[in-house]
Specification:
The complex is a heterodimer of chains A (about 600) and B (about 170).
Chain A (H helix, E strand, L loop, with lengths): L9 E2 L1 E4 L3 H12 L4 E4 L7 H5 L18 E3 L2 H6 L12 E3 L24 E2 L26 H4 L1 H5 L9 H15 L24 H11 L5 E3 L39 H10 L4 E4 L2 E8 L6 E8 L5 E6 L2 E3 L3 H10 L23 E10 L18 E3 L16 E7 L16 H10 L3 E9 L7 E9 L5 E6 L4 H20 L3 E6 L38 E3 L14 H21 L3
Parallel strand pairs in A: 1-11, 2-3, 2-12, 3-8, 4-5, 6-18, 12-20
Antiparallel strand pairs in A: 7-14, 9-10, 10-11, 13-16, 13-19, 14-15, 15-16, 17-18
Chain B lengths: L1 H12 L1 H6 L1 H4 L10 H14 L14 H10 L4 H22 L8 H11 L9 H18 L2 H7 L18
The chains are: A alpha/beta (about 600), B mainly alpha (about 170).
Chain lengths: ~600, ~170
C-alpha cells in the first residue's frame, strides 16, 4: 500500500514524525487530496508481536522482564546521575524509566536505546519512542480537553501569555477528534474540563465510588477515566476493535494490541494510506529542513537512513514538524542557513525556550478497611480507573501558587498483588494477609501545571552527537518555586480527600519526580501573535517561514494540568485544514 | 537430583502443569546455577516463605526455586550469583550455630525459628542474613505471584478475560 519515495517529486507536504501529531497531519492533509510524504525516524514494528497484552506472565520465560543484558533506568538513577545516562554503562542496551521494574520485554523495542540517543545537561527523564506511531503505541490514554481557564490563564492570573486561540476556536476540532478516534468518558458539565462526545464509560469499583461520593460534598469531581479508547467501536475504522476489557493497560507500560486504545498507525496512518495519497518512509531520521535560497522558505528535508547511513533529500511545498516537542526544536535549531542563522523559524530566539510540562510524583495511598478479606473482584483490564479534576485556582486564589493540578488514580484487584513485597513475615499468615488486603488499596498521583519560563530551555550540545552523527540536545530545565509549592499542596489535599472519605491514609508524598517524568513535554515553539515573543501563529505556521508548520506539543503556550495528546491532535487538525486551503490558494 | 525433583513434582501438581511451564521444562537436566544441595535448600526456603496450605499450593508446587535458578544463572552481574551462593551458605552456617545441624536436617520448628531470626529486621535489614532474607523473599514473592498457581489458585485472579461490559458501578 505504501508508495515508494519519489526523490524527483515535490510533495504537497512532508510530515516529520508519525505519532499523534504526524499521524493526524497525514490523515487531514490526505483527506483534502494533498500528496503527503510521512517520514518516521524509527522502524515499522510488528506492534502486536511486541505488545502481546494477553500473554500470562508464566508463559513468558522471564515473566515479562527484558533480557539480562538490558537495563531500564530507575527513578533513583535520574536523581543521582547526570545525562547522558547510558554513558559508561556495562549493559548492552539501556532504556528509559518507563520500562519499569526489571524492564519490560513488551516495550523494549518501542522506546529508544539510550546508548544510541544520548543527551546532556540538567537531569531529565526523556522518554522517546522511535517507531511508527511513536509514543502513541504505549501512551497512558487519558484524553482531556483544555478550556479557556487554560487558554486564557495569563489574563486570569497575570502570569505568562494567553494562547492566540480560545476554546470556541478548537471545540469543533475536539469534536472531530472524538468522533474519528473514539473516546470513553462520562459527562460532568464542568466549564474547566469540557465534556467530549463520549462512548461507553469505564466503571468505578467500590473504593473509587466511595471516593467519588465523598468528594461531591466539597464540589470536587472524580470521573471515570476519560480514555482515548473506543469502547463502542468505530464503524469507519477496520483496524480497531472496541475495548473488551482484557488489556494489560495498567499492568504494563501500556499498549493495546486490539487497538481499542488510540494509536497513530491504526487510528490515522493506515486509513490515510488507503487514500493512495500517502507515502510512508520509516528509518528516516530527518536532520535538516532545507531552505530555498531565493525565497527563504522551506524546500524540503534531508534525512539519514538509520539502517544504511545514506543521506537523502526530498522536496515539499510545505514541511510539518511533528517529531515531538523536544525533537522538533532540535531539528529547527539544526536547520541553520544564511537566511536563518539561528535555526529555521527562530528569528525570535524563542525556539527551544518557554518549555513546560507536568509535575508528577505527589499523591497519596490508602486502605479501605471494609474491603479487607472481601472476595476477588475484576478490576483489571479497564483502559483506566479515574480522573479527579482540577479544583485549585478556579474561583479561589491559592496564596501559595498559581494554576492547578488533577489526579489520576485507581483501586482494586490487579494481576500481581503489589502488597506482596511490603507485607512483612512469611508462611500461611503472610499468604493470607497478602490475599486479604490486595484489593483494598486506593492510590492517586497528581499531574500539575509547570509554568512556562523562558529560562527553561534546550539547545544543541556543541560536542556530543548521536549514533548518526547528529548533534544532541542539551537540557537547561529545572522545576521552580511554584511547582514545589504546588507539590506540597497536592500531597496534602490527596491525603485529606482520602481521609475525608473514611479511607486510612497509609502514605503520602510531596516529592517531585525528576523533570521529564510525566512524558508531557511542551512549549519549545510556542504560538502567539507577536513574532518577537513566539515562534508560530495560531495555525502553527512559523512566523518567519509560512510553509513550515510545527504541529506537535511544541506550540502549546502553557501546559495546563490536562494531558496534552487530545489537544495536540485537535490543534493539528485545525492547522492542517488551514494549510490545505492555503495550498489550494497558492499562499504558501 | 534434578530428575528426582521433577518426578516428585509431576506427582504433586500433575504432569500437565509441569509440561506447560517453560521454567519447569528448563529444569529437566537439573539446576542451571545452584548445586543440587543448594537447590534443595533454596526449594525448602521458598516453601517455608510461601507454603502449601488449605487455600492453595505453595512455592514448591509453583516451581519458584527453578525460576529463581534460571534467572540467577543468566544474571548480568556476577555479584548477583555470588550473593545468592553466599546467602545460602549463611543459612547453613546459621543453622549449624543455632541447631547444631544443617538446615534440611533440622526439625520444621527449627527451620521456622531460623527464618524468623533472619526476618527480624525485614523492613530495615542490616546483618548479612537479614539482607539475604529480603532478597530471598522478594524473589520468592515475585516468582510465586506470577506463576500459574499464584495467579489463579492463590489470588483467584479474574481478569484477562473478554468482557462485554466493564465490571463495577456505572456512574449516573
Amino acid at each position: 500500500m505504501s508508495l515508494e519515495v519519489d526523490y524527483n517529486k515535490t510533495y504537497d507536504a512532508i510530515v516529520v514524525g508519525s505519532g499523534a501529531a504526524g499521524g493526524m497531519a497525514a490523515h487531514v492533509l490526505t483527506s483534502h487530496g494533498a500528496e503527503v510524504l510521512l517520514l518516521e525516524a524509527g522502524k515499522r514494528l510488528d506492534i502486536n508481536r511486541e505488545l502481546r497484552s494477553m500473554e500470562w506472565p508464566y508463559d513468558h520465560p522471564r515473566r515479562g522482564d527484558m533480557p539480562p543484558d538490558s537495563h531500564a533506568l530507575s527513578g533513583r538513577e535520574y536523581t543521582i546521575r547526570q545525562p547522558p545516562y547510558a554513558k559508561g554503562s556495562k549493559y548492552k542496551h539501556v532504556y528509559s524509566y518507563v520500562e519499569d521494574g526489571n524492564g519490560s520485554d513488551y516495550a523494549k523495542d518501542i522506546v529508544v536505546d539510550e546508548k544510541d540517543h544520548p543527551y546532556t545537561g540538567t537531569q531529565y527523564a526523556w522518554v522517546r519512542a522511535r517507531c511508527l506511531g511513536g509514543k502513541t503505541n504505549i501512551w497512558g490514554r487519558l484524553a482531556l480537553r483544555l478550556s479557556d481557564y487554560d487558554f486564557k490563564a495569563a489574563s486570569r492570573d497575570g502570569y505568562g501569555e494567553d494562547w492566540p486561540i480560545s476554546y470556541a476556536d478548537i471545540e469543533p476540532y475536539y469534536d472531530k477528534v472524538d468522533r474519528y478516534l473514539g473516546i470513553s468518558g462520562h459527562k460532568e458539565n464542568l466549564p474547566y474540563l469540557p465534556d467530549g462526545i463520549f462512548q461507553r464509560a469505564v466503571r468505578l469499583n467500590p473504593a473509587e465510588a466511595l471516593l467519588r461520593e465523598s468528594l461531591q460534598k466539597s464540589g470536587r469531581v472524580l470521573t471515570p477515566y476519560r480514555a482515548g479508547v473506543t469502547t463502542d467501536g468505530l464503524a469507519h475504522n477496520k483496524y480497531r476493535s472496541r475495548c473488551y476489557g482484557r488489556g494489560a493497560c495498567d499492568r504494563r507500560v501500556g499498549g493495546c494490541d486490539i487497538h481499542a486504545a488510540f494509536d497513530s498507525p491504526t487510528g490515522l496512518i493506515f486509513p490515510a494510506m488507503e487514500t493512495g495519497k500517502l507515502t510512508l518512509r520509516p528509518n528516516a531520521t530527518v536532520h535538516e529542513v532545507t531552505v530555498d535560497k531565493a525565497t527563504g522558505k522551506a524546500s524540503g528535508v534531508s534525512f539519514v537512513d538509520t539502517e544504511t547511513g545514506t543521506t537523502y533529500t526530498v522536496k515539499g511545498r510545505s514541511v510539518l514538524l511533528a517529531a515531538s516537542t523536544l525533537e522538533s526544536a532540535r531539528l529547527m535549531l539544526l536547520s541553520k542557513s544564511s537566511q536563518h542563522p539561528n535555526g529555521i523559524g527562530n528569528s525570535s530566539g524563542h525556539v527551544g525556550h518557554n518549555f513546560c510540562e507536568h509535575i508528577m510524583g505527589p499523591g497519596a495511598y490508602g486502605l479501605v478497611k471494609d474491603l479487607v478479606g472481601k472476595p476477588r473482584t475484576l478490576d483489571d483490564g479497564r483502559p483506566g480507573s479515574f480522573y479527579l479534576a482540577r479544583f485549585r485556582n478556579l474561583t479561589d486564589r491559592n496564596p501559595n501558587f498559581i494554576r492547578g493540578y488533577g489526579f489520576e488514580g485507581g483501586s482494586g484487584c490487579g494481576m500481581f498483588p503489589d502488597n506482596a513485597y511490603g507485607t512483612p513475615g512469611f508462611g500461611s499468615a503472610y499468604k493470607k494477609t497478602v490475599r486479604d488486603y490486595a484489593g483494598a488499596f486506593i492510590g492517586m498521583g497528581g499531574f500539575g501545571e509547570m509554568l512556562a519560563r523562558y529560562e527553561n530551555y534546550v539547545d544543541l550540545d556543541p560536542q556530543v552527537k548521536d549514533r548518526w552523527g547528529v548533534p544532541v540536545l542539551r537540557f537547561h530545565i529545572k522545576f521552580g518555586d511554584n511547582e514545589r509549592k504546588m507539590a506540597a499542596d497536592m500531597a496534602a489535599t490527596a491525603g485529606e480527600m482520602l481521609h475525608e472519605a473514611g479511607i486510612q491514609v497509609l502514605s503520602k508524598s510531596s516529592e517531585l519526580l525528576t523533570e521529564g517524568y510525566s512524558i508531557h513535554e511542551l512549549g519549545t515553539s510556542r504560538m502567539g501573535t507577536d513574532p518577537k515573543k513566539s515562534v508560530v501563529n495560531q495555525f502553527q505556521q512559523a512566523h518567519d517561514v509560512k510553509n513550515l508548520l510545527v504541529v506537535d506539543g511544541s506550540t502549546h503556550v502553557s501546559a495546563s494540568c490536562q494531558n496534552p495528546t487530545w489537544t495536540i491532535m485537535a490543534l493539528c487538525w485545525r492547522s492542517c485544514d488551514h494549510l490545505a486551503e492555503e495550498l489550494k490558494r497558492g499562499n504558501v | 537430583m534434578g530428575c528426582e525433583f521433577n518426578r516428585r513434582d509431576l506427582i504433586r501438581i500433575g504432569a500437565g502443569a509441569v509440561l506447560a511451564a517453560p521454567a519447569a521444562l528448563a529444569h529437566v537436566n537439573g539446576p542451571k546455577f545452584f548445586t543440587p544441595a543448594e537447590f534443595a535448600l533454596l526449594d525448602e526456603l521458598t516453601e517455608i516463605i510461601i507454603p502449601t496450605d488449605e487455600h492453595s499450593p505453595g512455592a514448591r508446587a509453583a516451581k519458584v526455586a527453578a525460576y529463581i535458578d534460571t534467572r540467577v544463572a543468566e544474571a548480568f552481574e556476577a555479584r548477583e550469583r555470588d550473593d545468592w551462593r553466599q546467602g545460602l551458605k549463611l543459612v547453613e552456617e546459621l543453622s549449624q550455630k543455632m541447631n547444631g545441624r544443617g538446615f534440611l536436617e533440622s526439625t520444621p520448628d527449627e527451620r521456622v525459628a531460623l527464618l524468623q531470626h533472619m526476618a527480624r529486621n525485614e523492613m530495615h535489614p542490616k546483618a548479612p542474613e537479614e539482607v539475604f532474607f529480603r532478597t530471598l523473599k522478594h524473589a520468592t514473592a515475585r516468582a510465586y505471584y506470577t506463576s500459574k498457581i499464584g495467579i489463579h489458585q492463590e489470588m483467584e485472579y479474574k481478569g484477562n478475560v473478554m468482557l462485554q461490559e466493564f465490571v463495577g458501578y456505572e456512574v449516573k
